Amino acid sequence: MKENTLLTKLRNGETAINGWLSSASSFTAEAMGLVGFDCVTVDLQHGLIGIDTALPLFQALSIGNTIPIARPMWNDPAQIMRLLDSGAYGIISPLISTVDDAATLVSACLYPPRGTRSYGPARAIMYAGAENYYPEVDNQILKFAMIETLAGLDNLDKILQVEGLDGVYIGPNDLSLAMGYMPKTEPTDKEVLDMVQHICDRAHAHGKFAGMHGTSGVSAAGSAKKGFNFVTAGNDIGLLSAACKSAVAAVRQS
Amino acid sequence: MKENTLLTKLRNGETAINGWLSSASSFTAEAMGLVGFDCVTVDLQHGLIGIDTALPLFQALSIGNTIPIARPMWNDPAQIMRLLDSGAYGIISPLISTVDDAATLVSACLYPPRGTRSYGPARAIMYAGAENYYPEVDNQILKFAMIETLAGLDNLDKILQVEGLDGVYIGPNDLSLAMGYMPKTEPTDKEVLDMVQHICDRAHAHGKFAGMHGTSGVSAAGSAKKGFNFVTAGNDIGLLSAACKSAVAAVRQS
Amino acid sequence: MKENTLLTKLRNGETAINGWLSSASSFTAEAMGLVGFDCVTVDLQHGLIGIDTALPLFQALSIGNTIPIARPMWNDPAQIMRLLDSGAYGIISPLISTVDDAATLVSACLYPPRGTRSYGPARAIMYAGAENYYPEVDNQILKFAMIETLAGLDNLDKILQVEGLDGVYIGPNDLSLAMGYMPKTEPTDKEVLDMVQHICDRAHAHGKFAGMHGTSGVSAAGSAKKGFNFVTAGNDIGLLSAACKSAVAAVRQS
Amino acid sequence: MKENTLLTKLRNGETAINGWLSSASSFTAEAMGLVGFDCVTVDLQHGLIGIDTALPLFQALSIGNTIPIARPMWNDPAQIMRLLDSGAYGIISPLISTVDDAATLVSACLYPPRGTRSYGPARAIMYAGAENYYPEVDNQILKFAMIETLAGLDNLDKILQVEGLDGVYIGPNDLSLAMGYMPKTEPTDKEVLDMVQHICDRAHAHGKFAGMHGTSGVSAAGSAKKGFNFVTAGNDIGLLSAACKSAVAAVRQS
Amino acid sequence: MKENTLLTKLRNGETAINGWLSSASSFTAEAMGLVGFDCVTVDLQHGLIGIDTALPLFQALSIGNTIPIARPMWNDPAQIMRLLDSGAYGIISPLISTVDDAATLVSACLYPPRGTRSYGPARAIMYAGAENYYPEVDNQILKFAMIETLAGLDNLDKILQVEGLDGVYIGPNDLSLAMGYMPKTEPTDKEVLDMVQHICDRAHAHGKFAGMHGTSGVSAAGSAKKGFNFVTAGNDIGLLSAACKSAVAAVRQS
Amino acid sequence: MKENTLLTKLRNGETAINGWLSSASSFTAEAMGLVGFDCVTVDLQHGLIGIDTALPLFQALSIGNTIPIARPMWNDPAQIMRLLDSGAYGIISPLISTVDDAATLVSACLYPPRGTRSYGPARAIMYAGAENYYPEVDNQILKFAMIETLAGLDNLDKILQVEGLDGVYIGPNDLSLAMGYMPKTEPTDKEVLDMVQHICDRAHAHGKFAGMHGTSGVSAAGSAKKGFNFVTAGNDIGLLSAACKSAVAAVRQS
Ligand SMILES: [Mg+2]
Ligand SMILES: [Mg+2]
Ligand SMILES: [Mg+2]
Ligand SMILES: [Mg+2]
Ligand SMILES: [Mg+2]
Ligand SMILES: [Mg+2]
């Protein structure tokens, strides 16, 4: 089957750059697949994308060399399995608070006997190739648990020991809220920033990858410097809105 | 009916800043309607948008204060009328080469006895308000003829004298090709640049508005300085792709 | 092939009641197919429906016993043929002003040697049945020319003599505008009302059917009394909006 | 952030009139937003609307002054949060049977520390405005628990005491079934009618709002007279079907 | 209400032939409804179909005489109820492992007092007819539990005794995986084949129907010979891909 | 830019096998792109596909190695240009009857100075690569004129001399009708069969390619033997329906 170059890169110790897709436009998806991101995340939680509109996005992302991954609406095995059947090569699951949550995520991504994924990779074998899809795919799906709740912080070390989990991904808005601060995609409160670094370090201590959300290349570069292996450099609507506002300002101020 | 603030601005001698929408995402459209553009153009010619996907875009653009306008796939009265029925408050029609082309455009935008628009403003009166829609709307629709062919250049002065036409809009790629140069959205060839200025000046000489396509705020600011009344500061896919590439580069180079 | 019960009814001298669909919802279409209309018109001119969203509407209308017909965006053979391929059993073509316009409509609805329809009834034979589709279908498609322009009025008798045309359909808004009055879906100006009756009478004098647009059952009943064979009793958005306003008023006034 | 005028009205002791949307047409949604309803409910339970088709409906409802609310497919925090992210300003959650059910609903609508809503108001801040969105939004979302099961009746008083719940909404079909009667959207059985009044009175006794489903303005006016603060005056498909049937009958009987 | 001819056939001891739909095309659905299948299953688990794209499929399947059934994404009452509201006349629920799972499925398909289905058959009464819909529908919905996990095998006899369950349906890929073999839609391992026959026999011993998945007419005929009452003869994408490959080979080898 | 391997194959004297897509499903499109066809034609004339649903089909076809081409709804430059902008690498234009028709087709496919294509290859440069897109693309687009009318037969030799036209493609249904026979996708009338061979021979005499429509691999193999360079081996709905009917029959007859 087709190699998950994102996992290869991470396993080789390289930093992966992630783009974030929150609108259900296959034209936008194809464009984001061609700009150099190592992977693009189709966001079904806070992005305005559902199971039905996600399909053409995965297809559009398959045209280039980027790796399509997904954030499900919830840590829901049914939806995770469908995203994998649709061609996602990785899952970033939100609001993982307990070992059970993390185990559910991992199990949904692996076929028996390792997990409980139901077999029916309708489009996945079109994308990945049917040859050796099973059992090789079990080694090719990235599994990230989002750490962004108080319980998730409490259980961080236990979550990081769940077998099969590849790493954790920080959602800074929810993390800030959980810690009693205003929600900020780019945290500035010292306690939150310290926690971000702490999570990154604990992930590494357990031999796992650490991923960090972000709104720009500058932010992602900063996260990379902190040691994060997987850094998000903004989402489509955010980057476009910022670019438009700059463009308007450039004319108004001229 | 609701005022066409874009026309008001142009009639007041102010420069209008236009955003360009080429993807069929209502989320993207709503975002572009909120960033400060005076108007946003839904592009059915080279954008990947058709009559069916255009409807939610006009609706999304109606939420904010920007003015929704459209470029039809062709200088086709049937499609122009449908775009107006869908709530477009302006039409930028491509490849206008003759007086007849321009007259066709104007006629399609006006009800009898001034023109030939067929009556049935299904969504337009939801957007504009039913009160006085007819006959007031005949004074509220912006009509721009694109000048971008050799014949269009030859007939420029005659086109600019077509009654009811509000102005001309330059398509720099086609203009460059027509003049024997490589297609460039941001022309650099002197002969083309001179022609761009010439078109702008002739429009003003005839008391009409001049519009110029562009890929960025810098480009649009430059056009405004040349005297253009209506300047496009980039399209969604172009601005997003550029922003993504910058973001990726920021991480890779850090 | 499946009988066009609408044509049968008209040929038997009965009055047919038409519903009008202007929104692209297959749920709405199915509902309108079940309320007792003899036929429902999918409106691609002023309705917010295009070729892509029309397909599920024709499918939904096929579930009940109503006959699906269509108004194309323009008197355009390509779109007329596609609507027939999609399962429309009748065409109401807008803005027919000349004998040539009417002949174009008729020709687009008939296969050679009678006309120029291109063969490829992809879904039509699913709806109609493949058996004897050709050549029987040539006798099963209703063809109505809309009379609503000054030229159409001038050429009325000649249009009514075009072989193969089944009748004329009046668009009261455009007719009013053409005659110098305010656009009204329910005309009240005597000259317009007289013209409506005149068109109806001329159609009958030529042995053709007469159809009249309308916004309600009362309006359609009135048209039936004037002798119209085909009467439209309102469109989805208009009927729904009126029903909602009545419902709101009922509560506010209680 | 933009005021929730529906909540303001309810808090001021006025009766709110609700429209109900069960078809996934943004044109229908925009029309229903302009007829005078205080709010319109996008129904993802029994309406034929899902997460993907709901987005343009919320956008269309945002054009007018009505307040968009939603009924999720289930009392599911993931879907409730996505509806809020999409711009819903209220949630009517079905089949609330226990205090836990009600607490789950409330928690899903509030950010930490009050609740568990995950932060990512992608479109919500476009609709509501980003300024003070957090924490003000926690006071701006209407939360209605549907009372329509035997357990819900048993636990009514306890449910009404759940902090943060704004009120209850009666689903008359399920309520009738639960009480051993035929399902009726407009109940006629005395025991059911008494229960309807009882639920309304208990809500008021606990200082909460009472909402009642209904099929027409007459029905909604009746509910308002019984003391309900929030009355539904019919859904799109029901109102349209009734209007069509009346129109057809008007012609047939003429 | 409209008879469920599939259930009638099964109850009469006849073998039912099932087609499987995994793409969200209403044109494909209509075609599959016309080729002679007794029923067609809309697959929301491994098919690339969701709640939003399922609606036009059910409508398209309603045109012919086939019976539309559905496989939900999960054994989820909310989605099962919505599929029934959309017009499904049967449910094949995946991964049923326990008596509780089976009871949940049955309960979701029956109205109180027999079950917990929520009342709101929006489109179902358009398809089935409103007359006597309740309570007759409780006897007209096919309920199949998929047996494909180790726990499901362990609990087979207990599952088969769940009141209201009509039968079991075998998912051969998951069954093979569960039993320690490679996933195969057409099993060849003796132990798996024996288990398939065993499940069929146990169903019959309990007076329930047995259904078997398959990829072709040959496979389905083989299952019928083994005694299965309900046999699947392939899915759209699989049958089409095979037909295309054969066609290409026919040309290449000529 | 990316090579048009279909043109390369034809120019090398090899026979190309074409698949035909008439349903608007991107899943079906991706499947058809992976079965071995040299190219797949997205049919906007008799297929139920329009400009809006065509986009994800082109994207899905871009995933594999097949070459995406298109048949427009009409020999309409506006639509042809949009199909090229969407990523089509070839155009099969229907009902070409005159030299002017053929010249219009060729002109729409070529940029100035060779033709009149308007510049804006929005998605085309994503598919093809931006490097050297202009002017190389002018040599990479396949242009086939459909010969299927009496006038087309009369003007065959003149059409074949139009510079830039790559060849002709026979529509057997329309050709049969034009010649006074029943429409047949697989002609059996000697006069029609002779004409098919004649068209093929005349194309070769003019150094142009000859393409033939067909319903199966057997048919396409037969056309290849007759000398056709481009042979269609069936469309999605036809191949699937035939496969389903065979599967049903296999069970019924067992
Ligand atoms: Mg989060
Ligand atoms: Mg241009
Ligand atoms: Mg009209
Ligand atoms: Mg209920
Ligand atoms: Mg399974
Ligand atoms: Mg043809």
UniProtKB/TrEMBL annotation, chains A, B, C, D, E, F:
Keyword Lyase: yes
Domain HpcH/HpaI aldolase/citrate lyase intervals: 20-240
InterPro entries: Aldolase/citrate-lyase_domain (IPR005000), HpcH-HpaI_aldolase (IPR050251), Pyrv/PenolPyrv_kinase-like_dom (IPR015813), Pyrv_kinase-like_dom_sf (IPR040442)
The entry's keywords: Lyase, Metal-binding
GO MF annotations, alphabetized: aldehyde-lyase activity; metal ion binding
Coiled coil: none
Gene Ontology CC terms, in alphabetical order: cytoplasm
Pfam families: HpcH_HpaI (PF03328)
Keyword Transmembrane helix belongs to the record: no
Database matches in Gene3D superfamilies: Phosphoenolpyruvate-binding domains
Domain of life where this protein originates: Bacteria
PANTHER family on file: 2-KETO-3-DEOXY-L-RHAMNONATE ALDOLASE, PHOSPHOENOLPYRUVATE CARBOXYLASE FAMILY PROTEIN
Record family assignment: Belongs to the HpcH/HpaI aldolase family.
Name of this chain's protein: 4-hydroxy-2-oxoheptanedioate aldolase
Organism field: Jezberella montanilacus
